[in-house]
Design brief:
Strand order of the largest sheet: 1-2-3-4
Radius of gyration: 27 Å
Structural class: alpha+beta
Length: 292
Amino acid sequence: MTPESLQHTSLQKIQDDFLYLMEVFRDMLLSLGEEQVARQLPWVNDPQTAGPQPAGSPEKLVQALCIAFELLNLVEENNATHFRRQSETHFGSASVRGSWAETLQVLKEQGHSQAEIAAALARLEVMPVLTAHPTEAKRITVLELHRELYGLLVKRENPNWSPQEQRELKAEITGLLERWWRTGEIYLQKPDLRDERNNLMHYFTNVFPQALDRTDRRLRLAWQEAGFEHGALAHFPLLHFGSLSLIHISEPTRIRRNSYAAFSLKKKKKQQQQQQEQNIRRDKNRHAQQAK
């Protein structure tokens, strides 16, 4: 297999998976009596053979188009993971742009020694900033549906499913799409601080621990594949997570069994500083009045 053939296969997989989901989506709408919306879906309806369609609810058509583009995003994300795995299998881990394996290979080819690279990794600090973007207004239930549907999309890649199991899988996907269609896509009211905090804690609890542990393991494997000594990697990069100035989360990823997150709340310290400044100003005003 060549990189060109792998890219062609990847593009074909995107098309096949997306058309499959769109056909299931169309059939689901037809089963619910939404024929006008189903007949106006792009990609799965031929406008030349279908002919003009009666005007239906514009709100429902917009909702259907939004779901269609979300399905395309899910397919592309799944295909990106599939493409990376195939690339690593056929061309090695260093073939993945931006990976630890590629970075270590480039540094090694540039003449950097094992000790220099290990020292640079120990000094490396990364700090992603998490913000509550005003356009992120999707319901948590809809985001959970996205994750479930992505899991079924991955499950469908198994070539060993029997025809009956494939029908059962299709029924599960249909059920998820129906729940998605019946659920409001966005909040009707602006999310409050509690909603934003719960969304943020989801990443700290369910996403970051797994992602950091996976990053640790991939760095160890890339280090060994580069031909370096295992014991030379004494310290991993230092990761900090910050959200404005309210919450600061420090994640020192050292060689350890499990990743962990140390939460440091700065709000109390900031309030104390503000109180001290107020006391100083009050004392200055009192002394000025006494001097008069």
